[in-house]
Specification:
- The protein is an alpha/beta fold.
- The chain has a single domain, classed as Alpha-Beta Barrel (TIM Barrel), CATH 3.20.20.
- It contains nine helices and eight strands.
- It has an eight-stranded parallel beta sheet.
- The longest helix has 15 residues.
- The protein binds D-xylitol-5-phosphate and zinc ion.
Length: 234
């Protein structure tokens, strides 16, 4: 991916689930680039959320690409269902995939973009071999399971290394960051090398979703490579 724009992916985990279509329409009208859907299974993470029926329902009410983050053990058994439901990206955790290459191929064979992600304490080296095949690398900046947690600052350095890994290997993977992202830290995360910012509570707890998305994008854009901020970093 060319790094010309900052993409914002609101996470519906912090939306009002009783009015989900309306909430999605508000972030879509507010300038969201993707819709991030957190799937939690109560095993890999200590929380339960949504499955393929919600992805299918959302596919009918939005044009936004559906960025599905699978926080579940044995994601392989659900890949066909999520693909069928209309996911555009399916992202699996390396911690749950002993045969990661097979899993990534299985996602891609269904015409879905394949993402790989890793927890804050998981080494970046765990994705080194798969990065040429991945469409997306998601660096978790909180321990997955809940919205509204604080961004783990030490992950910034890992984001920089992830950027270097993608650039060095010529991978086309987009670099996404998820957890504790808000207007105040968006610039630093983009400056470290991210392409896509996932943000849940910061957007859905604000009174004007569009204004928050816009503020996040403006702050992040100033930190894009080629601007004064990015040059000063080197
Ligand atoms: C955390 C989820 C995130 C979460 C982000 O396990 O993967 O996508 O919704 O929420 P905030 O932005 O509130 O940290
Ligand atoms: Zn997520």
């Amino acid at each position: 991916m060319t790094r010309r724009s900052v993409l914002i992916a609101p996470s519906i985990l912090s939306a009002d689930f009783a009015r989900l279509a309306e909430e999605v329409a508000r972030v879509e009208a507010g300038g969201a680039d993707l819709l991030h859907i957190d799937v939690m299974d109560g095993h890999f993470v200590p929380n339960l959320t949504v499955g393929p029926p919600i992805v299918e329902a959302l596919r009918k009410v939005t044009k936004l690409p559906l960025d599905v983050h699978l926080m579940m053990t044995n994601p392989d058994s659900f890949i066909p269902e999520f693909a069928e439901a209309g996911a555009d990206y399916l992202t699996v955790h390396v911690e749950t995939c002993p045969h990661l290459h097979r899993t990534v191929q299985s996602v891609k064979e269904r015409g879905v973009k394949a993402g790989v992600t890793l927890n804050p304490a998981t080494s970046l080296s765990s994705v080194e071999e798969i990065i040429p095949d991945a469409d997306l690398l998601l660096v978790m900046s909180v321990n997955p399971g809940f919205g509204g947690q604080h961004f783990i600052e030490s992950v910034l350095e890992k984001i920089s290394r992830a950027r270097q890994l993608i650039d060095r290997t010529g991978s086309r993977a987009a670099l996404e960051v998820d957890g504790g992202v808000k207007v105040e830290n968006a610039a630093r995360i983009i400056q470290a090398g991210a392409d896509i910012l996932v943000s849940g509570s910061a957007i859905f707890s604000s009174s004007d979703y569009g204004a928050t998305i816009k503020a996040m994008r403006q702050s992040a854009r100033k930190a894009m490579p080629g601007t004064g901020a990015a040059v000063a970093r080197r």
